[in-house]
Amino acid sequence: MAVKIRLRRMGKKRQPIYKVVAADERSPRDGKFIETLGLYNPITDPATVDIKEDRVLYWLGVGAQPTTTVKGLLSRKGILYKRELLKSGLSEEEVNQKIDEWLKQQEAKLSTKAEKKASLKEKKKESVKEQEDEKSVPEAEGAASEEVNEEEKTEE
What we know:
This protein is of the alpha+beta class.
């Protein structure tokens, strides 16, 4: 029996929530599964990922294959990195130390991304305001020139 670690869709229409499950690869997407390993909610910003790390490591050790989406989630959480470190023969303390360093780097990356995103939003708002101001000035000038043209016509 080949086991896959994959997503099982839950939730309402257009409001998906996924369970991360270990399932036989022959069973359907929302069908029978062996064990629930976690939860993934893509609707929240940033996406919420709660995974039982020890159970995922067990299933990966037994030979379960993650799907591409689940592999991305596990990579983002650092579970695959931890598995690689454990395979390389490092002690538990060394592994935990490296994982902590990696998590700090990931948090720093996320904070810089958030800052860049916020600054881009501000720049966009400023450019939109400038464009609106530029549009309103020619309209005012255009109205004034029409009045002048009307005055000239009445004088003739």
